[in-house]
Amino acid sequence: MCGVTTTDVPAATDAGYRRRLLDGMAACIRERGYADTTVADIVRAARTSRRTFYATFADRQDCLVALLHESSQRTIARISASVDRAAAWDVQARQAIEGWIAAVQADPPISLSWIRDVPALGQGHARLFQRETMRAFVDLIRDLTDTPHLRAAGVRPPSEQTATILLGGLRELIAATVEDGRDVETIVDSATEATRRLLGPRP
């Protein structure tokens, strides 16, 4: 049974029910993974009803996408806040990776769900979410590398294709590390080196 959530919100409000259901979904993913989670599991963990669930979300997939949207936004914000834009390029690259890894360490099962579960959901809302999230990460990379300080060091914003290649590799490295039960902090050096090589100064 998934752990019961304890979010202290007014149960009488729609926002309160939504928060409890999202926390219930998160608790179930941490315990058993999305594939083995049912609506019954979610409402049990959230201490709500199926009627409340379907008044809030269209289905289980809709609930997952809403949860992972929140998670991805927090991750992007954490990466951005981790980077000192006045620092040297190699320092900024490491800070960005460390920010991402710290976000993963905060909740590995949820990070893994974003990487593994969403692509398996197929077309429709989930596919749109995946593309929008990847676009947000690409925009983050381009924003972080588009500063006068880095331009003076020979760094330029990468193309969308290059940024996507970097993101895909880092996502797979993170997922494999979490799946193997290893500490994601162990990949910081490799991930930083790959980032420096792919996005570093060019003539």
UniProtKB/TrEMBL annotation:
<keyword id="KW-0238">DNA-binding</keyword>
<feature type="DNA-binding region" description="H-T-H motif">
    <location>
        <begin position="38"/>
        <end position="57"/>
    </location>
</feature>
<protein>
    <submittedName>
        <fullName>TetR family transcriptional regulator</fullName>
    </submittedName>
</protein>
<dbReference type="Pfam" id="PF00440">
    <property type="entry name" value="TetR_N"/>
</dbReference>
<feature type="domain" description="HTH tetR-type">
    <location>
        <begin position="15"/>
        <end position="75"/>
    </location>
</feature>
<dbReference type="GO" id="GO:0003700">
    <property type="term" value="F:DNA-binding transcription factor activity"/>
</dbReference>
<dbReference type="InterPro" id="IPR001647">
    <property type="entry name" value="HTH_TetR"/>
</dbReference>
<dbReference type="InterPro" id="IPR009057">
    <property type="entry name" value="Homeodomain-like_sf"/>
</dbReference>
<dbReference type="InterPro" id="IPR050109">
    <property type="entry name" value="HTH-type_TetR-like_transc_reg"/>
</dbReference>
<dbReference type="GO" id="GO:0000976">
    <property type="term" value="F:transcription cis-regulatory region binding"/>
</dbReference>
